[in-house]
């Protein structure tokens, strides 16, 4: 199923980008644009059309949740190497939705208080309520990605976490929250170019951290950690999607398409009035 | 001072709309457009230009806060009678800023847990961190507005709250948070028309609550409660602004202008690099 509003797809992104049996991250070309026959300009037009549809779908989701007939919510989990475009997704895809319908959480390095609890403690507090699109900018997956690469936890603990994440996401799914997990995939060369542009522009210097270059040296280890995470946690109830991210316009369009597809499956409807409309019109007119 | 990006102001909205000595809410015409000589179309163009400026100013504010040289934040407090346009401000003014830079809180009827604490307990937890624009959709003022009109607290307690609010806002202001308090002011007739349109459209029925008509009967009491709140809490460090709200385009433009003016006074700058830029370029190129 492709979104109604995005015209130029020739294939279904929710099929083409999904991590299934035998998936290998190394086989994904970060410069590819799977399933989309248009170019950058078409992509921008489709993104604009999709924004209006996404905004309405979210409002319907919220309206339906107010009648207590629905527990439906959406949780978008974003993971990526630095500079892959999470910020652009937040600004241009999430940012096109009414902010009243979004709960956004950026998970940073855990605080001392957070480290004193199980790794899911801070995550569970931020899951979206019915009617909302929750967005995680980084997530529970940091605890099996950087934690694995940097040895921040014992191997046995990291093994335990894959299962704990699956149980957690199953419970979310069973109680009405659609879990959409997206990894934005850039190439190492593209990352170097993007970081270099930050160094070239004084108004972007604050975005650069010398530690970013150190992390690049661990690139193959991160790719391995992602591969393992995909194998262990891409489930029927919460599949992973890998979106090629060397072309920003495609990344945004594809993530929007995945959100639209998720909401169209929920298919939220404007709820009927729970009061007598004509009687209320008369009462209001007299007030 | 008027915003650089909004061309058609003939007066300064931060002067014209501010609640000062001798202010009387009853003298404000909700259909007026103080200080703006353009019409709806000019207003829309100015709003688009202002959106780009507001987005950049917020990003600068955030960037500057990362260097720890600045504690500056902005808190926008929105209060209004139902249907006056708070939602439109959130969608069209706040929604034009990168969602990563906004923390939005909608304060509903207090829960049991919230009622067991002082009225400011839930408020203090949601003040913006440095670098952010915090937005309160309703606020601490409900505790002196609906609380006064509906007698939800003893008169002595309500008296105490005006002072407590002033102390709280002074502390915020002293620690770098600019407090911008805005009341959107519609007429009772305009509200009736807007509520009637909700009853006329099946996709808006969920937004109507029969209780809205009951609240209308208390209109004069609410206006009195606002008048008292203005007199008691419009301070040099956190003045109130009353924005005529019968014309939605003006309301949005004026609130954007007040935000722009607030941020232009902060005048946040892109921070200088805290590392050796040329050395980092070389290290990155080799990575």
From TrEMBL, chains A, B:
Residues 20-47 are annotated as: Disordered. It holds the Pfam family PPK2. GO terms for molecular function: kinase activity. Residues 40-267 form the Polyphosphate kinase-2-related domain. InterPro entries: P-loop_NTPase (IPR027417), PPK2-rel_1 (IPR022300), PPK2-related (IPR022488). The keyword Transferase applies. Signal peptide: none annotated. Keywords: Kinase, Transferase. This is PPK2 family polyphosphate kinase.
């Amino acid at each position: 199923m492709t979104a109604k509003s995005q015209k130029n797809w020739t294939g279904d992104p929710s099929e083409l980008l999904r991590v299934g049996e035998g998936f290998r991250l190394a086989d994904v070309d970060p410069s590819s644009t799977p399933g989309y026959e248009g170019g950058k300009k078409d992509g921008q037009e489709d993104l604009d059309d999709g924004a209006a549809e996404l905004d309405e779908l979210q409002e319907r989701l919220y309206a339906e949740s107010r009648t207590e007939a629905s527990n439906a919510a959406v949780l978008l989990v974003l993971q990526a190497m630095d500079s892959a475009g999470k910020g652009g997704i937040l600004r241009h895809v999430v940012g096109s939705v009414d902010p009243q319908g979004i709960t956004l959480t950026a998970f940073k390095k855990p605080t001392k208080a957070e480290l004193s609890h199980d790794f899911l403690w801070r995550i569970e507090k931020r899951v979206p309520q019915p009617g909302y699109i929750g967005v995680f900018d980084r997530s529970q997956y940091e605890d099996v990605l950087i934690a694995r690469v940097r040895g921040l936890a014992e191997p046995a603990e990291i093994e335990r976490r894959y299962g704990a994440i699956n149980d957690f996401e199953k419970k979310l799914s069973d109680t009405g929250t659609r879990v959409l997990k997206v990894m934005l995939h850039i190439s190492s060369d593209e990352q170097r170019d993007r970081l270099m542009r930050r160094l070239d522009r004084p108004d972007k210097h604050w975005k650069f951290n010398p530690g970013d270059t150190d992390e690049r040296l661990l690139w193959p280890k991160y790719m391995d950690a992602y591969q393992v995470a995909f194998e262990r946690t891409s489930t029927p109830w919460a599949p992973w999607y890998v979106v090629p991210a060397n072309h920003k316009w495609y990344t945004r369009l594809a993530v929007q398409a995945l959100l639209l597809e998720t909401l169209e499956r929920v298919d939220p409807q404007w709820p009927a009035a729970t009061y007598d409309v004509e009687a209320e019109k008369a009462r209001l007119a007299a007030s």
